[in-house]
Amino acid sequence: MATDRLPAYDDLPVAAGKPPRSSWGLWGDRDVFGCLNLLTPDRVVAAARLVQRGALFPLNWDMRMPDPPLFGRARFEHEVTGKPPSVGHDDVMHGWNTQSSSQWDGFRHVRHPVHGHYGGVPDEEHGMHHWASRGLAGRAVLADVGRWRAAQGRPVRMDAPDPITPKDVLGTLADQETTLEPGDVLLMRTGWVGWYSALDMDTRTRMSDRTQMAAPGLPPGEDTARFLWDLHIAAIGADNPAVEIWPPGAHVDPAVVEEVRADPSRMHETFVHTLLLPMLGIPLGELWNLEPLADDCTADGRYECFFTSAPLNLPAGVASPPNALAIK
Fold first, then answer.
1. What is the pLDDT of residues 164-210, one digit of tens each?
2. pLDDT tens digit sequence for 13-36
3. Which of 84, 123, 163, 293 counts the highest number of beta carbons within 10 A?
4. DSSP string, 267-286
5. Residue-wise DSSP of 24-85
6. Nearest residue to 235 (alpha-carbon basis) of 138, 128, 112, 312
7. Please, what CATH class does the domain formed by 7-327 belong to?
């Protein structure tokens, strides 16, 4: 299907026999790329023309951050082999989790509780190696929600499940005089990475407890899924822990939370990952370091850039550091 004729969310599904409100079948059966299909050669060529200064902004955070890792994930150990009189060294990573720092959530990461993994493709047939085989490049647009919210007198609360609404994102883009185009990668800065970097170790340690951690982000629910799909973006990369708010279900009526627990088909009402990844095929980037890029965009007033990402060529991999660059 031509990427300039994508259906609206409320017109999904696009193929008979596919789950409701899904993009399954839009790019053929057993598709493993989802909205990454929008990163077409023509769009890559057009995006490359955005490079004016040759300024590069790596978007991977320090691999050791957050420290301790969030969500109860273990710290990795970095071993450097070879001691004198050895003439060389190797790196050995012990206990490394591909989601302990900046990451892409791949389509193996989350399945829909009723319909399974994206496109109906079996769990073990998804993997980061598919994305690595094509490489990711195109136009990216930064939405500096953190700065915009602060200017509105509503600074983002970094230690709370503060909802960043679609109106916040659209208000930010309008204030920046930036237009999203189909196939863009949306970079959403909340300011969380910069805030976290200034915390003391005691506070970080408390946050590493899954039950104690709270963070801002997009609200759960179908409205968020509709908003992101109707932007027709290729992917979203954000600097907060989960793109959406944490913990799941914050601000949802407790009675509804109990109903969701009893009916897994409604899980998106508390955790919208279950629509974005397995149903719509929208890749999610989390914990990206957008601070230097945001500072530069504020300085020169240009919020668009050429974007590249080379995920790990890990067969059947669940996730990967983005290995992403923004180039201006």
1. 999 999 999 999 999 999 999 999 999 999 999 999 999 999 999 98
2. 877 888 989 999 999 999 999 999
3. 293
4. GGGT-THHHHTTTT---EEE
5. TBTTBTT-S-GGGGG--HHHHHHHHTT-SS--EEE-PPPTT-SSSPSTTPPPPEEEE---TT
6. 138
7. alpha beta
